[in-house]
From TrEMBL:
UniProt domain Lipid/polyisoprenoid-binding YceI-like: residue ranges: 4-174
InterPro entries per record: Lipid/polyisoprenoid-bd_YceI, TTHA0802/YceI-like_sf
Lineage, top ranks: Bacteria, Pseudomonadati, Acidobacteriota, Terriglobia, Terriglobales
Pfam assignment, any one: YceI
Top-level lineage group: Bacteria
Protein's name in the database: YceI family protein
Length: 179
């Protein structure tokens, strides 16, 4: 049976990790994640996910870096204010895990990605009587595939930023009441 859930932005997040100066990882997150999940545990082919991330909600713990990453050299937030994901296939990947394939759109470029998802959890009732589930997902992309190509050469011969970006999602979903 299909059940509709809305992503709870106050209890959900999207994080990323990228190699910096070829020596360490820098992490950042987006504070605004919203969307809808239609979940059918008995027939995963009926399950769908649509999510949107507000690029303006970027946080890397450095205001100057945040401004640069939101600029036209990276996310061009004024022209492309959101990152979107729309699933086209959901399948079991073992006990308590799903493999979700879909289109990830960044800078107007859509590429297929596969999310490894842990969950969803069992439903739990919150203090206000709403039913909630949770799930976590991860994938890795090449930022250059989406047109995110800004970089700087280092005196040591390397580059400032790696091309691989690890993406992690932690979602809490609220069951929607039937119409």
């Amino acid at each position: 049976m299909k059940t509709v859930y809305e992503i709870d932005p106050a209890h959900s997040s999207a994080q990323f990790t990228i190699r910096h100066l070829m020596i360490s990882n820098v992490r950042g997150d987006f504070k605004s994640v919203k969307g809808t999940v239609v979940y059918d545990p008995e027939n995963l082919a009926n399950t769908s996910i649509q999510a949107e991330i507000d690029v303006h909600s970027l946080n890397t713990r450095d205001e100057n870096r945040d401004a640069h990453v939101k600029s036209a050299e990276f996310f061009h937030a004024e022209k492309y204010p959101s990152i979107a994901f729309k699933s086209n296939k959901v399948e079991s990947a073992g006990d308590g895990e799903l493999k979700v394939t879909g289109g990830l759109t960044i800078l107007g470029v859509t590429k297929e990605v596969v999310l490894k998802v842990e969950g969803p959890s069992d439903e739990a009732k919150d203090p206000w009587g709403n039913l909630r589930i949770g799930a976590s997902g991860s994938t890795k992309i090449k930022r250059s595939d989406f047109g995110l190509t800004w970089n700087a050469m280092l005196e040591t011969g390397g580059v400032m930023l790696g091309d691989d970006v690890k993406i992690e999602l932690d979602l809490e979903l609220v069951k929607q009441k039937s119409a």
